[in-house]
């Protein structure tokens, strides 16, 4: 799970342009909190949880902050990542094998070419107003909103 979603931490950022370069967007993280939670039933089970705020303009077609959550919720072989804003939530579950329970809205690509850059092990989620492509160890490399496509042009990942 960390390979796809673990890079959303303070200090990392991503810059995107739409197809005709008339719109620029970026993603960065604020209000990052990592803590150890405890299971409500079995108090011996502890698990890390990350909460953060995404700052972006066009992702999810909103100018509001997006709230991120990443945890295994005490299930050692299951993780959950979500991004939400008013009325919209994007969430994905992953087993310890790094395999997704691919449903009707998820697609795996061996690679994706974005702005002349090849990204490998890409996951596409087609279940929201925003349709993000996540590349392993990079994050969102492209997203589609309504009739516009934004592509990653620059990033800084520590």
Description of the molecule:
By secondary structure, this protein is mostly beta strands. The protein has one domain (2-144). The chain has one helix and eleven strands; from the N terminus they run αβββββββββββ. The protein has one helix at residues 2-5; strands at 13-18, 24-38, 46-55, 66-71, 78-85, 88-95, 106-114, 117-125, 130-135, 139-145, 148-156. The chain has an eleven-stranded antiparallel beta sheet with strand order 6-5-4-3-2-1-11-10-9-8-7, with no helix packed on it. The two termini are 17 Å apart. The model has no long low-confidence stretch (mean pLDDT 75).
What's the topology here?
Elements: H1 2-5, E1 13-18, E2 24-38, E3 46-55, E4 66-71, E5 78-85, E6 88-95, E7 106-114, E8 117-125, E9 130-135, E10 139-145, E11 148-156
Antiparallel strand pairs: 1-2, 1-11, 2-3, 3-4, 4-5, 5-6, 7-8, 8-9, 9-10, 10-11
Largest sheet: 11 strands, antiparallel
Please report the total strand number as a whole number.
Answer: 11
Class inferred from helices and paired strands: mainly beta
Query: What is the domain tally?
Result: 1
Strand order of the largest sheet: 6-5-4-3-2-1-11-10-9-8-7
Provide a count of the helices. 1
Q: Give the overall average pLDDT.
A: 75
Rounded to an integer in angstroms, the radius of gyration calculated over CA atoms is 16 Å
Order of helices and strands: HEEEEEEEEEEE
């Amino acid at each position: 799970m960390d390979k796809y979603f673990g890079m959303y931490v303070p200090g990392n950022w991503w810059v995107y342009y739409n197809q005709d370069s008339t719109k620029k967007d970026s993603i960065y993280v604020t209000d990052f909190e990592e803590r150890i939670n405890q299971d409500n039933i079995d108090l011996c089970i502890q698990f890390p949880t990350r909460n953060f705020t995404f700052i972006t303009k066009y992702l999810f077609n909103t100018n509001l902050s997006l709230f991120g959550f990443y945890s295994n919720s005490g299930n050692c072989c299951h993780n959950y990542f979500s991004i939400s804003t008013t009325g919209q939530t994007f969430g994905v579950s992953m087993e310890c094998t790094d395999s997704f329970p691919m449903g009707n809205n998820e697609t795996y690509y061996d690679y994706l070419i974005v702005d002349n850059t090849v990204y490998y092990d890409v996951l596409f989620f087609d279940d929201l107003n925003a349709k993000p492509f996540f590349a392993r160890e990079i994050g969102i490399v492209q997203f589609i909103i309504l009739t516009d496509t934004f592509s990653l042009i620059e990033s800084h990942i520590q």
